[in-house]
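Lecture 7, part B: from sequences to assemblies.

Below are the input chains for today's worked example.
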Amino acid sequence: MTITSPAGFRAAGVVAGLKSTGAKDLALVVNDGPTHDSASVFTANRCKANPILWSQEVVKDGVVRAVVLNSGGANCYTGPDGFQTTHAVAEQVATRVGIGAGDVVVCSTGLIGLANDRDHLLAGVDAAYDALAADGGNAAAEAIMTTDSVSKQVVVEGAGWSIGGMAKGAGMLAPQLATMLVVITTDAVVPAADLDQALRAATRVSFDRLDSDGCMSTNDTVTVMASGASGITPSLPDFTEALTQACTDLAMQLLRDAEGADHEIAITVLNAASEDEAVECARSVARSNLFKAAVFGHDPNWGRVLASIGTTQATFDPADLDVAMNGVWVCRNSTPAEDPTTVDLEPREVSVTIDLKSGDARATVWTNDLTHAYVHENSAYSS
Amino acid sequence: MTITSPAGFRAAGVVAGLKSTGAKDLALVVNDGPTHDSASVFTANRCKANPILWSQEVVKDGVVRAVVLNSGGANCYTGPDGFQTTHAVAEQVATRVGIGAGDVVVCSTGLIGLANDRDHLLAGVDAAYDALAADGGNAAAEAIMTTDSVSKQVVVEGAGWSIGGMAKGAGMLAPQLATMLVVITTDAVVPAADLDQALRAATRVSFDRLDSDGCMSTNDTVTVMASGASGITPSLPDFTEALTQACTDLAMQLLRDAEGADHEIAITVLNAASEDEAVECARSVARSNLFKAAVFGHDPNWGRVLASIGTTQATFDPADLDVAMNGVWVCRNSTPAEDPTTVDLEPREVSVTIDLKSGDARATVWTNDLTHAYVHENSAYSS
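Predicted structure of the full complex, as structure tokens:
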């Protein structure tokens, strides 16, 4: 159940001394091949961290041989000196593994605006290299945790090949990714161009539709590496389906571990004129602090759902919207319908269904409720 | 200091029985002329309440002779029957005052999705008519309060004429207005077309730049009425300046009374390529839950400011942004600068200044911090 489950990969997670707690804080994942195809997506935030600036260049040729990740410091808004730290880490990995630095993706997570200790990082790379193991996936997944309460891992089995994945992230999940680091491995044979196509299809309906608090992080990276060690070339649709399953599973693990949340909320928009409009409406609800606070208070407040939809430019008749919460159609034709007191908001999982009656497209966006614990964690923790 | 300070207006605030607390809940403002010029702006939310649907038609001819407002029920998402309630209230006002119903603006605020009791409203109109007085402004301002902790009123004096205003609203303040009702009176002579131009100029830099929680309400209305009773016609620039001063004063009163807030935050963007881009950047910061929670926690987290700006399409160099908090330039060139621990976030008033170094335009957007009390009030109160 880890990134070293697929053949052709070694990994390690070690203590580099970046975290004041003394917990593991540096992970290394190496693709031993025979192939080294890769694809990546990064945060859409224009104010990107140094590791992103580095890794965006690394991935352009479709070849990635190693990913090195640290928690305990995001190396973000640290200027040219911070970029040199990222570069030095990549060089150290390259030297030890015997590859080029231009094939090493670097990821960092933790506090923003503070320089990472370069010596700690470089020593950590050495320790991680020495610890590399074919069963090192669990240690790597632990080493990338920040405010995560659990590590997130997944394996999806294909016909003679498999996909493994690990993720970190808890809160700050937003469209086009957010403080989220994801490494995915596969021993299938998948050329870089196909990997890219599959990854974009998979993230579009998984990570891109998580919107925990509307904020967009500076360091988000999803990298997939294919070792080809199984010798099997799946069809692109089969691989895409498996990759989507892996990404969705990891996304739901991220959602369930969002900082301070009491509820996971799935907002599904039905009968929209287009999938984009369905996403637009669902996201507007996912970003309503008033709605999210109401769910925390166990109040099936469909009025706040309509008020959110009303801020979009999607196609619908404002006087003819239906809204269900946990299957109870509390609003029909934009007026009160079934008794809201029959909606049980005690369970963590909440579904909101919105019928736009304007087409046949649909989409789901996931979010969390707005809780006291969210405010507490995000007022006390600098990121 | 009230809407009846300018000559030519009478007002009242009475108990109609809509609020379970027995507090005043119905207000009536009548313009006795000699002129009846008016202008209004309404919420941009497409899912509008019934009073908005009514009043949008009323104001089209530039003539408004009375405004009737109730708290204790928003008459929103209540369907055709709710619209008939609004209509009946306007007719009752018209009958008693001796004017046409088509000159009566109706405003409602309170819970969404619940029908207002029509009999209570009509009896309330009768009581309010009987109570109309040239010093009734204070009572009217009290009657429109919902979760407001204080009534909001203002007077701005011109040369022989004046402007009076009242507002209700506490939280849910967002661009293009939000659960906010504002009535402004003036005894200046101002033709409707000029009033409209002045009102749009005034709201653009006041109410439109309040963004307490990013949510947009369904009932927001700002109506200005000119009685002409002073006989004086100010220049349009003079009148616009005074109206802007009145709107800004009321906006700041709304900001200071936002539900559960501990801080008022003024986010100013300097040296933007355009005013629109300055507003876009400032608003993106104002909508960052992470940033707002950090202010609550007294954490001068400029990294979250940069991360918010990075989500916009404004013109700037991501590696060359400066950020000050309460006058301390904690970030220069997108890297750490002055010591953040010297920023004192104890006082309620917080200023954030962002230098985009891309032009000479500027704008300020106001918001509040994200607090435990915000979550509590909005999880416990249905709106």
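Note for the exam: The CA atoms of residues 40 and 223 of chain B lie 4 Å apart. Keep this in mind when comparing with the next example.
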